[in-house]
């Protein structure tokens, strides 16, 4: 089994308090246009007119050649971290396809695991990737822009 994991609350709170992003810059503030600004904490879309943070996020513990960094959005106001393993979160329902790829315990890409998968097949594709013993976790990224969306962990 597996579950979709949003960014941890302590990390999000640090960004909200001005902690530097993946490039050492403070998060920028912007207003959501209501057209596809998914918060990586609650995994819902930030409503039009609401303030949001925009920042470069590196979902890895340290820099190394495979530690990709990219833009993400976060709600400025406190929001509830997505925790429901039974349902695909709203933020993953807009795109027809996602790029998913497995990473080892060393936080490096496990070659041969990266695929573009239809949204409807996300869970079954993750199950297939987790069939490999050398995969510790999976990233879900935009198939069009490579933006980080969430992580899939074994349960």
Structure, explained:
- This is DUF1203 domain-containing protein.
- It is a single chain.
- The chain has 2 domains: 2-75, no CATH class; 90-154, no CATH class.
- Helices cover 11% and strands 29% of the residues.
- The protein is built from 2 helices and 8 strands.
- The chain has helices at 9-16, 122-130; strands at residues 2-5, 28-31, 51-57, 70-75, 97-103, 115-118, 137-142, 148-154.
- A 5-stranded antiparallel beta sheet has the order 1-8-7-5-6. A 3-stranded antiparallel beta sheet has the order 2-3-4, covered by helices on one side.
- A hairpin with a 5-residue loop joins strand 7 and strand 8.
- 26% of the residues are buried.
| Element-level helix/strand string | EHEEEEEHEE
Tell me the total number of β-strands. Answer: 8
Structural classification: mainly beta
Share of β-strand residues: 25-35%
Q: Main beta sheet: strand number and arrangement?
A: 5 strands, antiparallel
Radius of gyration: 15 Å
- Alpha carbon gap, first and last residue: 5 Å
Return the domain count: 2
* Portion in helices: 10-25%
Number of helices: 2
Q: In what order do the strands lie side by side in the largest sheet?
A: 1-8-7-5-6
